[in-house]
Design goal:
Blueprint lengths: L4 H13 L3 E11 L4 E13 H7 L10 E9 L2 H15 E2 L2 E2 L6
Antiparallel strand pairs: 1-2, 2-3, 4-5
Helix pairs in contact: 1-3
């Protein structure tokens, strides 16, 4: 875990308290440019299957589980923090959940 690991975890916990579930996968990949192993970060969102099926041409067959949708793949923890902070601003306004109009 790098310098921004704690901030990433706090943002993910705050988003989870508002009902938005995000997951972070860390993997080591070989960089041909740098000639060494580097860490790849993948930020994914857990979405209900029915919501996923509405937006995708290839629907999942089960209705009882959630689907993992990749939001961002990067090598920079700063980009992950900025992406999560932007999601937090979308979900909340002054610390309160923004009510969406469902008509």
């Amino acid at each position: 875990m790098g310098r921004f690991g704690l901030k990433i975890n706090k943002l993910m916990q705050a988003l989870e308290s508002q009902g938005e579930i995000y997951m972070l996968d860390r993997r080591q990949v070989w960089s041909d440019k740098l000639h060494k192993k580097v860490q790849s970060l993948t930020l994914s969102k857990s979405v209900p299957t029915e919501e996923y099926n509405k937006d995708n041409p290839k629907p999942k067959s089960t209705q009882h589980e959630r689907v993992k949708v990749v939001e961002l793949t990067t090598f920079s923890e700063v980009e992950v923090v900025l992406a999560l902070a932007a999601k937090w601003k979308q979900v909340t306004r002054n610390g309160r959940r923004v009510k969406s109009n469902t008509c």
